[in-house]
Amino acid sequence: MVKSLKILLWRTLAVVSLVLGVIGAFLPVMPTVPFVLLAAWAASQGWPRLEAWLLDHRTFGPHIHHWRLNGAVSRKAKWFATVALAFSAVSLQLMPLPSWCAWARWAVPLIFVAVLLWMWRRPEH
Predict the structure, then answer these.
(1) Measured distance CA(55)–CA(43) in Å, rounded
(2) Which of 29, 43, 44, 110 would give a disulfide with 50, using CB separation of 3.0 to 4.6 Å?
(3) Co-location of 51 and 15 in the same domain
(4) b/e for 15-32, b at 16 or more Cβ within 10 A?
(5) 34 burial via Cβ count (<10 Å: 0-12, 13-18, 19+)
(6) What is the largest CA-CA distance in the chain?
(7) What domain range is 109 assigned to?
(8) pTM score, whole prediction
C-alpha cells in the first residue's frame, strides 16, 4: 500500500512538472527546462517508461543527459533563457499591476538576475 502510494505521488509530480514545462514553452514568464528536469527526476523514482521517453525525446533528452552528467546547460539554452527572462521583465514593467503587488516590479527581475547569474556559471556540454 505504501509503495503504491509513493509511486502514485512520484507519477503525479512527474506529470504536473511536465505539464508546467509545456505551459512554460508558451508562456514567457514560466520556465520550461527546470520543470522538464524535475519531471525526469520524478519519473526516475516511480515511472521508468516516462523517464525513458523523456531521455529519448529529441528535444528534451540531450538536455536531461547533459544536466545529469555534470549539471551542464547549453550556451543556446542560456541565451534563450536570457532573452526570454529579459522579455518577461520588460513585459512586467509595462503591465498594469494592482497596487498590492507593485513589489513584483522589482522583486521578479531581481529573481531573474539571480537565476541568470547561476545559470551562466553552469558548465556547458
Answers:
(1) 11
(2) 43
(3) yes
(4) eebbebbeebeeebebbb
(5) middle
(6) 51
(7) 75-120
(8) 0.75
Cell of 46: 516511480
Residue 63, C-alpha cell as written in the block: 538536455
Cell of 29: 514568464
Domain count, the chain: 2
Among the listed residues 62, 66, 64, the one whose alpha carbon sits nearest the alpha carbon of residue 17: 64
Q: Which amino acid is at 115?
A: V
Does one domain contain both 10 and 28? Answer: yes
Residue 125 lies in a domain: no
Q: What is the pLDDT of residues 50-104, one digit of tens each?
A: 999 999 999 889 989 999 999 998 898 899 889 988 988 998 899 898 989 889 9
Are 61 and 55 contacting, i.e. CB atoms less than 8 angstroms apart? yes
Residue 26 located in a structural domain: yes
Residues 53 and 79 in one domain: no
Round to whole Å and give the CA distance between 77 and 36.
13
